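This part of the workshop introduces the protein records we will be handling. A record pairs a protein's sequence with a compact description of its fold. As an example, a complete record with its sequence and its structure tokens follows.

_____
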Amino acid sequence: MKNLFNDRGFWKTSIKLTIPVALQNLLTSSFSLVDTLLVSSLGTVALSSVGMCGQWAWLMNMILVGFCSATTLFVSQYWGVKDDKSIRHYSGISILLCFGVSFLFTVAGLFFPDFVIGMFNKNPDVISTGASYIRIVSLSYIPIAMTNILAAVLRAVENVRLPMYVSAVTTILNIFLDYVLIFGKWGFAKLGIKGAAVATVISAWLGVLVIVAVSVLQRNILVTKSKLFLAFDKNELRQYIKKATPVVINEGMWGFGTFIFNVVFGNMGYEYFSALTIVRSFENVAFVIFIGITSAASVMIGKSIGKGNVQRGIEDSKRFSIIVPIIAVVVSVLIVIFRAQLVGVFNMGSNISPLALETAYTLMIVYALAFPLRMFAFLQIVAVFRAGGETVSGAKAELACLWLLSIPATLAAVYLLKVPFVIAYLIMYVFEDVPKVVFCIKFYLSKKWIKPVTKEGIIGLVEYKKSRGKRNE
């Protein structure tokens, strides 16, 4: 164990990749947190409405995460052998697909806002407030999608600073515009919840413009003739679809499953959903370091396996598999200790109902207990397995735990057993995360997740298997 962590190269690279990505996601989460905090001053209905709109955008983001993960798989492995041509081809495929998905979600938000909000709650005030918000904020979906996929490409080639700087600029702008437009400061009209939506749209479009402009100045991997991104051939498209489809289905179906939970929870009462919105704001913040770690793990493991150094990829995966649970436990303890203070931040204006606050206190404990299990499974499926080239088995396990266990158990608990909201929330976690962790441990130890996409990686895997065979003899 001591030798496993006595590797300066590992620590230097992992920290270099983790910190900027973690900071970027901290800024992105702060973007959402500030929105939620300022909107909470408008009351429980406004907070619940924005939370419901956020879950619609979150469903889109989960599908985009699938494309970003597939892109990281290809780009990181081809980055290992410095094949810029293939990197641009696979990036082009992802950009086109991400644009298509975000366009569809934009159309739904613009033209069918009442239907989108009505899925979560039938309260007329909630629907009216939420519809006025999503009509505007849906205009941010396309630039958000483009920023996400371009940032994924940059991170996969170890350019992690530019996405971080872009997030810093957009977050600062969003905080400023939120304050000015929601409350009508410095001569601007007081727009309330619509002001929060306008702030998000302006910040999102600035983000994609900045990432493109700075890329031109840097002459990085994104800068080339646009036709080169579209010059992929049928074999590349076929290989991308083969690897990406399970990932996109996994993230999309997982996102849709969580969307179903949100519909169920939303219809249990908008005050409960306000509590859930508060907890999820802190979920995002607690999650940021692990997004950074898994991003670093994806790049390091994928790069090593892509250039044929399979043993190095396995060693790095072991290190990350030990580090993540330890950090997750520490974060869980902090959440439990400071839960009252964290939730109390949202009630500075005393506009949140006592039921929403009390529910949020309890949900924080449940989330803290499930957090280490969820982060370990997240690392394995999103980083280790996918970076190794295996996208099918993790997807099957994750969807089985969600759709065959967690969703049926939660629906039965709510609609047949009529359990309280907090118990339903607990059941959702138990039936999904416990069996998923058991699968991840077994599949990781089998090493069946190592499936390179480069020629060098395939040769390296053959040599690794030969060396293991000799040792066993």
